[in-house]
Amino acid sequence: MSDVVAPRELTPRRRWAALAVLSIAVLVLAIDNTVLYLAVPSLTADLSPTANEVLWIGDVYSLALAGLLVVMGSLADRVGRKRLLLVGAAAFGAASLFAALSTSPATLIAARLLLGVAGATLMPSTLSLIRTVFTDPAERARAIAAWAAAASGGAAVGPLVGGALLEHFSWGSVFLINVPIMVVLVVAGAWLLPESRDPAPGPFDLLSALLSMAAIVPVVWAVKHTVAAGVDVAGVAALAAGAGAGVLFVRRQRRLPVPLIDVSLFARPAFAGSVFAGFMAVFALIGTLFFFSQYLQLVRGFSPLQAGLGELPTTLSAIAVVAVVGRFSRRLGLGRAIAVSLALVTGGLVAVAVTEGLAGYVWLALALVPLGLGVGLAQTLTTDAVVSSVPPRKAGAASAISETALELGVAMGVAVLGSVVSLVYRAGLALPDGLDPAARAAVTDSLAAGTHALDPASPVLDGARAAFTTAMQTTSLIAAAVTLAAAVVAWRTIPATAGGDTGSGTGTGTGERAAADRTR
Fold first, then answer.
1. Is 436 helix (H, G, I), strand (E, B) or coil?
2. Which strand (E) or helix (H) includes residue 93?
C-alpha cells in the first residue's frame, strides 16, 4: 500500500487550510491541558476533591497521553494518519461531554483518563501529517512554528478561555466547549486532509506496545508519589518496574526488524538533545502554569476572566515565535538557538519568582513574556529537528517520540512541580492552636479548600496566601535551575544543524531525502 495523496498534489491553499485544521486539533488539546487549572476553585467547591485528587485530575490526562503516544504513532503509520485523527477527534468530543457531566472527583478523573486516551490518537497524527504535507524544508519550518504556536499558545490561552466561560457558566463548560469544536474538526478534516500511511509498516508488535506503556506510566506515577509522600516501598517499586520495562523495551526494539521506535536515533546528539530540550521546556512551563491561575485568583483576588487575561502575555509571546524562529535559527544555528531559547525560559521563570512577591501586576506581566517566547522557540526548533530526521513514511513514529517527550514533560511538570508547590505551601503554614479542626484540615489540604472554609478577611487565610506565594516562588526557581542546566546541555551537545548529525537538517537537506524516499 502506498501513501495516499502525495503531498505535491496539494495546492498551497489546500496545504495551509490543512494546517489550520491540524492546528485546531493541537490547540484544543493544549487548552485542555491548562483550562482546568482555572476551574479548580470552582470544582473544588462543587465536588470537594482532596489535594491529591486535584493533582490526579490535572495530570491523569497527560499520563494517559504520554503512555499511549508511541503506540498511537505507530498505529497511525499503519491505519492512516487522517483516519486515526478523525476517530480520535470524535472520541475526544464524547469524552469531553462525559467530563462536563461528572458528579464526583472519581468520575472526573475517569473522564480525564478517557480524554487522554483520545488525545493520544490526535497528537502524532497532527505532526506527522504536517511532515507529509509540507515537503519543502523552509515551508515546513514555518508550518511547524505555527503548529508549535498553537500548542504553546493553547497552553497559555486555556486560562483565558476558561476564565471567560467561568464568568457565566459552571466548571463543566470548560469541557463542554470541546464538543462543537471536535464536530467542526471532523467535518473539515474529512474534506481537507490527505490520507497518508507507511507503505511498508511491518507487523504491529503488541508486546512492544505494552512495554512502552509499562515503562512510562509507573515512572511518572513514582515521581508524583515520591514528591508528595516521600520515599517509600510503593514509589521505589513503581520506579524499578518502569525502569525494568524500559530496559526490556529498548532491548526488544534493537532486535526487531521493524521496531516500534528506532532507538538508534537517540545515539545522535541532535535528535536526543532536541527531544530532551523540548521535554525540559514544557516541564517548566506547565509545571509553573498548573498553580499560576490559582495564584492569580486566590492570592491576587482576580476573577476567573481576569486571571485568564493575566496570562495573555505568555500566549502573545508564544505566537510571536512564528515571525522570528527562522531568522533566529539561521543566525545562531540549531544547538545554540535551542540553548538560548531555554535560557530565555530560565530568565522568565526567575523574573516570575521575583515579581510574584510584588504588589503590582505590570512587572509580573512583563516577566511572562520571555517565558512564553522561550518555550515557543524551544518547542518549534526541537520539534522540527526531530521530525526532519526521518523519511515521511516514518513520520508518525518520529512524531510520537517528540510528542511523548512533550507530554511526559507535561505529566512530570505537574507531578513534580505541582507536588513541590503543595509541600512548600504546607511547610510554610503557621496555623493557630485554636483553629477549628475542619478549617485546619481544609487550609492544610490546599489554599483553594481553605478559601472556601474561612472568612475572606481571616488572618489565617492571609498567612495561607503568603505561604502559597512562597511556594510558587520556590517552585519557579527550581524550574529555572532545571532549564538552565538543560540550556547548557543543549549548547554543548546539539550541533549547529541536525544535518551534520542525522543526515537531514532542520531545513537542510530534508526535501532531497524526502524525494528520494518517495522513489524507493
1. coil
2. helix 81-100
